[in-house]
Amino acid sequence: MIRAAALAALVAAVFAGPASAQDEQSLRGVWQGTVGDQSVHACFGGSGDERGVYYYDRYRELIRLQPVENSAGAFVEALGWSDPGDASWQVDSMDQDSATGIWRDADSNAPIMLTRLEWTGRDEYSGPCESSAFMQPRLAGGSIVGEAGELAGQEYVTLTFVPPVQWQAGEGDDAHDVQISSFLLGDDEGDPRRTNRAINGLLSAHLPRGDMSDTYAQCMAQSIGVHGVDGDFMQELVPELITSRWVGALESNSVYCGGAHPSHWQNRRVFDRNSGREIEPSRWLNDVALNRELQEAGKDSHVSATATQALVTALVAQWPAGNEGGDDCAAIAGETAYWDIGLRREGLAFIPSVPHVYTPCADTTVLSWADAAPFLSLEGRAVMLSLAR
Questions:
Q1: Hey, what domains does the chain have and what are their CATH numbers?
Q2: Who has greater pLDDT, 19 or 357?
Q3: Is the confidence at residue 370, as pLDDT, over 50?
Q4: Which of the four pLDDT bands, split at 50, 70 and 90, describes residue 327?
Q5: Model pLDDT, residue 103
Q6: What is the CA 41 to chain-centroid distance, rounded?
Q7: Is 80 exceeded by the pLDDT of residue 291?
Q8: Residue 6 pLDDT > 70, yes or no?
Q9: How many CB atoms lie within 10 A of CB 267?
């Protein structure tokens, strides 16, 4: 019988990505060493992408290494998105485990001494610069701070991630920013089932833990793999409603992870303090509001729900007058079948799912309980009654 530890090791080996042993004859991979007397980490794409990136361990700011055409082992440095500057690398020799060369700028030079590190990709498409071997030292140094708050007499604590210094908000085109926050319910001694703790676990799930499982770390790694520079990442979860029964939160996201353009979106989340679970609010709407259809897809089979024309008409009638897109955005929302649903004390809050180009139109419209009444299922009516003052 295979023991659990041995089985886990076998599975890890089977699904492991490319490692340095496969890259012995090229710079492709992750390296650790020194430039002069300063410790550094470096990575090189290789296999048709000869670009490199490195950082001084002391500062952890990325420096791109652009290959010099028709000059083997030669690279020029560039900071952020800027054009190459005066500093350069020349890698003169390399064997299976090490590489050496010279760093130069206009006034001085220093020896480069590197040792190859093993690395593993997250999947078959990710390269050395996206690996934990290159990224992990940059994830050290963050912290989380708390600040007490209150919403309609209900206490909570805002948790804000203070990122490592290289990702704290700066100025200029090359500044990169990481903003991540959430909140927790206050400790309730009258919570014998510990449902508040269960909800707090869900609310805090996206807060960084300091390794490559963190979503922001994966975003930065993807941007480095594509451009050789960090991306930008903002994810904030703020409370909109806290009662003895319900917790409603608005999640805002704004990220750039190396793709064609940044992405911005919002969605709402609802938690039931009776059960300690996150709730899908679409179950509060009846067949007058939603067209439900079975999507047969094997193990991924599910029921899709799209808004009926009756619901869309009711939502557009409540379209916020202050939206910068005005009637144009209302018209776009009027053609939208998919809506994110959340909970406010005064009713249900909806955000239309629109194409990227219409992101400014993804505004919130609120259907009061009175206007929502024709669209509520029995569960929805129970929610309405639970919020009656």
A1: 4-139 (2.40.128), 141-279 (3.30.565), 284-389 (no CATH)
A2: 357
A3: yes
A4: confident
A5: 98
A6: 24
A7: yes
A8: no
A9: 15
Non-local (6+) Cβ contacts of 380 within 8 A are 283, 284, 285, 286, 372
Residues 6+ apart with CB under 8 A from 95: none
Token couple for 168: 């704290």
- The number of residues in the chain equals 389
Q: How much of the chain, in percent, has pLDDT values that exceed 70?
A: 88
The answer to whether residues 348 and 342 touch, using CB atoms and an 8 Å cutoff, is yes
**Tens digit of each residue's pLDDT (9 = 90 or more) over 301-323:** 998 999 999 999 999 999 987 66
Backbone angles phi, psi at 99, to 5 degrees: -145, 145
Three-state SS letters, the chain: CCCHHHHHHHHHHHHCCCCHHHHCCCCCEEEEEEECCEEEEEEEEECCEEEEEEEECCCCCCEEEEECCCCCCEEEEEECCCCCCCCEEEEEEECCCEEEEEEECCCCEEEEEEEEECCCCCCCCCCHHHCHHHHHHHHCCCEEEEEEEEECCEEEEEEEEECCHHHCCCCCCCCCCEEEEEEEECCCCCCCCCHHHHHHHHHCCCCCCCCCCCHHHHHHHHHHHHHCCCCEEEEEEEEEEECCCEEEEEEEEEEECCCCCCEEEEEEEEEECCCCEEECHHHHECCCCEEEEEECCHHHCEEEEEECHHHHHHHHHCCCCCCCCHHHHHHHHCCCCCEEEEEECCEEEEEECCCHHHHHHCCCEEEEHHHHHHHECHHHHHHHHHCCC
Nearest residue to 218 (alpha-carbon basis) of 124, 136, 117: 136
Q: Mean pLDDT across the stretch 246-261? A: 95
Q: Please compute the mean of the pLDDT values over residues 167-173 and round it to a whole number.
A: 68
Q: Which of 7-11, 102-106, 253-257 has the lowest mean pLDDT?
A: 7-11
85-109 pLDDT per residue, tens: 999 999 999 998 999 999 999 889 9
Pull the structure tokens for residue 283. 């179950």
User: Which pair of tokens denotes residue 49?
Assistant: 């992408």
Structure tokens at 174: 């090359």
